[in-house]
Amino acid sequence: DEEKQWLDALEAGELDDYGDIKKNANTKPLTTRQKALLHGQQENELLQLPSGYKNVELTEEQLQRRQVRAKKRRIQAQEKREKDKKQTLDRLLKKQDSRARKGRGSKRSNIPRVRYLLKSGGNTISIPQGFQLPFTPQPPRLPPKPPVKCGVKGCNNVKKYNCSKTDVPLCSLTCYKKNLIHSQSQTATSVT
């Protein structure tokens, strides 16, 4: 039976590229055109959709509406270009204004200053109006605090940081390790 089917398929030209009988594919989802092309049968000429652009006859009123809409679009595009130009100019001018302000009007220029000039012709002191000589002395500055020393016994180095667990001032990693060992031994003795 199989041999007879193969011979019939050979005569009908229904063998695939490998010499096997073509299996019937599910033709249900295929359109009529696809089925006809698949089986090579075209009983009647199938309709074909037009592929080119179809010119539509427009009435005078429709032509006028299209022209009005096209004119509006052109006007809107022109207005948008003008608006963009104006925004660009404003941005550029604003940048130049900010640069000019930075150079001329700094905050420091508003502060009254005493100016001392040394010249070959002589020395001059310029004092702003409203200031009296001798100047009122400023309060003396407090002396700086003495540097904090490392909190580990036997170490006299200056503190660099505090221990995150014990908050003891420390100077190095070795002192940090000594401090941890010391704090653990204290907690062990306080627990017992």
Mean pLDDT: 81
Helix content: 40-55%
The ordered string of helix (H) and strand (E) elements is HHHEEEEH
Low-pLDDT stretches are none
What class would the helix/strand composition place it in? mainly alpha
* Approximate strand percentage: 5-15%
Number of helices: 4
Alpha-carbon distance between the two ends: 99 Å
Strand order of the largest sheet: 1-2
**What form results from the Cα inertia axes?**
flat
State Rg: 49 Å
Major β-sheet, in short? 2 strands, antiparallel
Number of strands: 4
Secondary structure topology:
Blueprint: H1 2-12, H2 32-39, H3 60-104, E1 115-119, E2 122-126, E3 161-162, E4 169-170, H4 173-191
Antiparallel strand pairs: 1-2, 3-4
What do these coordinates show?
With 192 residues, the chain is mainly alpha-helical. Among the domains are: 1-21 and 64-91, no CATH class; 149-187, no CATH class. 43% of the residues lie in helices and 7% in strands. The strands form 2 sheets. Strands 1-2 form a two-stranded antiparallel ribbon. It has a two-stranded antiparallel sheet with strand order 3-4. A hairpin with a 2-residue loop joins strand 1 (115-119) and strand 2. The longest helix has 45 residues, at 60-104. It starts with a helix and ends with a helix. The mean pLDDT is 81.
